[in-house]
Design goal:
Elements: H1 9-31, E1 39-40, E2 61-66, E3 71-75, H2 79-96, E4 110-113, E5 119-125, E6 133-134, E7 140-146, E8 151-156, H3 157-163
Antiparallel strand pairs: 1-3, 2-3, 4-5, 5-7, 6-7, 7-8
Length: about 170
Amino acid sequence: MNYSSEENPKFRSENNKKDIEMEDLNEDIERQELTPHYRRLTFIQSNGCDFCTHVTKPGPYMHYISIETKNGWLSCGEEECKRRGRQAVEDFMAHQAYGRANHLKNRESINVKRTSGQMDNDWVLERSYPEVQVDNNGVEKVCVTKPSACIEKWVSIDNLLLWNEV
């Protein structure tokens, strides 16, 4: 008995459909712009690009998501790569900044419990620290600031979401 799929006409026609679908899928993947994960942009080799294989010319161009943490992407002088670098920062800020608390980023004020236990409602998410930090206990934290008092503090995202339930 021959189990070859090429011998069976029914299987061959199904297989051709799968081949066509796979070709379409591969073309879609090639067209899709995949953004690499951001990285620290200090003490780096600066003759590369996170978006292509070109040697940096005339760059490098650094696209920071945070000046404080110096994290972001590096692009070469090609216009498409610079565009993708700017887009990566915009996408990060729109969808990933502050983790699960991202929806609070545009609020004029958020509620935060002070160390004293008092609840304050004139805090905002710190713009210079949009990244989630994880402490030694695995707790996700974000930085909040109270502009009127020029103070900042790190709070757990779980607490922040609890304090700002809608």
